Amino acid sequence: MATAGPGTSLLMDVRLRLSPAAEEVDTRGEPPVWQAPLPDGSRVWVATGYDTVRTALTAPAFRKPVVGGGERWERYLHFTDPRTTGSIVRSMLNADGDDHRRLRALAAPALAPDRLRQAAAHAARLADHQLDLVSAHGGADLVHDFAHPFAVRAVTALYGYPPEFTRRVLELPRWAPAPVFAPAGSPDRERYGVEREAMCALLRDLVAAKRRAPGPDPVSEMIARADSDGLDDGQLTSTLFLLLVAAYEPVTDFLTTSLYSLWHRPGLLADPDSVTAGLAELLRYTSPLAVTMPRFAAEPVELGGARLAAGDAVVLHLALANRDPARFRDPNRLDLTRRVDHDLVFAHGPHFCLGTHLAVPLCRTALEAVLRRLPGLAPAQPLDHLSWQPGSSGPLSHLHVTAGLRELPVVFEPQPPRRPAAEAAV
After folding, report:
1. What family does this belong to (predicted)?
2. Parallel, antiparallel, or unpaired for β 306-308 and 301-303?
3. Helix (H) or strand (E) holding 248
């Protein structure tokens, strides 16, 4: 039975992966596909090699539908009532073939180039507005006071959410990695179920409101297209959920992991312009979406020297694939001058992230804003005391695994707001 190599095991912990200590880790010769224990005592295949992850992202032998994993994986992933589950998991993320193409076509117009240009300009104003609320205080939590509300407001404005629905999204807890492997009845699972139900209720209410009063906005257009294409409301709300969470969560996680990485290397912060110029390298290095939802072998297949049986699940570790020494020279070194191409930050193939051209400008805007507006920015507590998203700092325990901080208390030199409060509405 293949297990993770010693270097791979170390890099599974995001705290080490983003620190200079990672530069001493060498994963050459370690298995690119191996089996990891799950909290219930079962095991799952994990692909961490660049070539094996890229293959599994495109090969027809690996399928996305969760039913491909049989009863055990249905139990893992479908743990709320059928209506709630069907309102959140039936997007292109969990579809292949014709279903995937129809659902991707449903979402694509929301991210049209002209809309993204307008969103980028609006995001710059939003970032300044959000920082105006905290800049005079000399301290803040960059997750809850800046990154999360900034990203939510930018994304919901793009999609045409009415203000009351943006407010409802902000009132929900951040969407954390799912405790799918926790035993039934565990507090983590119960909490996640409640949050899933609240999100579904919000999305159903949004669809109902837009049906009553449609406008020239992406949500209204998606409703009309779903109706004309014969897609049901569960597929519609699942797509709305994916477009929402998959856009705002990576922005928050990118900002926190980038700052964590840079604070470990204070010399890099001496030139903020070089930091933002190295955005592609920061994305590769931090890989905010670390671990994908599983794919399932449609037939017996070999992947990276491992023999998978039909129905076996394989989890793709994008963050470790982006640290493969067979693909990247000195992969565990943060080199802001590195020319990055063909990374897997936003996956690859038919499931390449549709929102890439939204996420990248938002990540750039968030990072530029805090470096420009908050002089003397520093963590308010030791870096090794910070709290990370579940599943990101050791053995596989959650899905999707995002590499980000739950909170990021910081201090900085107080600055007056750029605009008076009465003029700051965006």
Report:
1. Belongs to the cytochrome P450 family.
2. antiparallel
3. helix 233-263
Would you say residue 232 lies in a domain?
Answer: yes
- Distance, CA of 170 to CA of 73 (rounded, Å): 31
Tokens of 416: 């007056």
Write down the residue that tokens 């905010």 correspond to. Answer: 288
The pLDDT value recorded for residue 423 is: 47
What angle do the packed helices 113-132 and 148-159 form, to 10 degrees?
140
Q: Please tell me the pTM assigned to this model.
A: 0.94
**Between the CA atoms of 138, 142, 146 and 152, what dihedral angle is there, to the nearest 10 degrees?**
-170
In whole angstroms, what is the distance from residue 180 CA to residue 331 CA?
Answer: 31
DSSP string of 103-132, one letter each residue: HHHHHGGGG-HHHHHHHHHHHHHHHHHHHH
Nearest 5 degrees, angle CA 241-CA 220-CA 346?
A: 40
Number of domains in the chain: 1
pLDDT on residue 426:
59
DSSP letters spanning 348-378: -GGGS-TTHHHHHHHHHHHHHHHHHH-TT-E
Q: Which residues, given as ranges, of the chain have pLDDT below 50?
A: 421-425
Residue 303 maps to a domain: yes
b/e map of 4-23 (b: 16 or more CB within 10 Å)? bbebbbbbbbbbbbbbeebe
Position 85 in a domain: yes
Does 1 reside within a domain? no
Check residue 424 and give its pLDDT: 46
Residue 310 sits in a domain whose CATH number is 1.10.630.10
pLDDT of residue 70: 73
Q: How far apart are CA 5 and CA 77, in angstroms?
A: 28
| d(C-alpha 8, C-alpha 4), whole Å | 6
